[in-house]
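ARCHIVE CARD
SHELF: 3
SLOT: left
DATA:
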Amino acid sequence: MASSAWGKRRGPAQQLLPERATRGRDLLDQQRRDPYAAAFLAKSQRLYGLRGATLASYDGELARTWAAYRVDHDDLRFIGEYRRELLRRLHA
């Protein structure tokens, strides 16, 4: 987990907040809604990937997989940069 400016530990959902801010673009630019949504999901998947997740299912899957990981640190259902970093730290 990353530390915030206040020294608290943050999980992947909080780290995606800047990405969630970009998600709001589709509300402002209706004509480009689909490309913005696809870009948001692609960025999210690169950071904290969830196999088979869609834009509609991503938040729920993120919450479920993160909760499972917090209970059992060997439960790495997610993929992406976040998983690679956790594995790197475990094997360092």
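SLOT: right
DATA:
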Amino acid sequence: MDWNKTKTIFIIVFSILNVFLYTMYVNRYNEAKMIEPIGNTDISTRLKDENITVKSSAVDGESVSYISGKVKQFTNKELTSLQNLRIQIINGGTEIQAKITKLSSLPDITDELLSDFVRKQVYKGSSYKLWKVNKKDREAIFFQISDDYMIYYNQNATVKVHWNDRLEITDYEQKMFDSLKSFGEKSTLIKAQRAIEIIFDNGYLPANSTVSKTQLGYSTLVPLTETQVLCPTWYIHIILPKDVNGERKEADYFVNAVDGTIVDIEQNVKGKELEKQ
């Protein structure tokens, strides 16, 4: 056998095989790149066919880490700068109950005035953002934030503000995480449109609905006693179609932004403590 000829043949064969495999890889890569826009177009078409409007969508392409937080233990010493308050620290130091000693009426109950009160009269008040105002029950709920992302419905990261019929803020309760730290590598998140599609495919987005808001935040993944793990989560607010009485109700849904599962947010709220029905 002529070894030099055989060696040359092997080199040619492997070179052809490498070119063939590379061509297959490039073709499959390009096909995969073409599939994504088709999928996005498909959900847009499906929503349009059901007369579902998406009014706004959060910025896609964000990479966010999981975070962990330890429940804060408050001390009287660090609260001395708060004025015109009678403060009690309860539940083993994890909760503040504050009553306003010098009442003053607000011109109206607005998001801006409530947020201003929390910034000025609550310990580290700028660490919270307004979530909901219930004028019937005279209660406003604020959620703690981490890097401007809300922590949704975690009972250890809230401020609840109350007022009377004279529009005087009377008291509030506060809980918070002492330190919130990222851990692990940043995860590539599913897009807001994909989160909407998951809600739609699970039957929670009926025809003639409106998706009025999508927002990225955190929900509780591991609810341990003192230290908790929080996962990036899409919040989707939906305005439902008119019912038989001509009224339009609203609904909130939460989707794990890493694995796409729908988060049962009520598991984090014992007895629906944060939102009265």
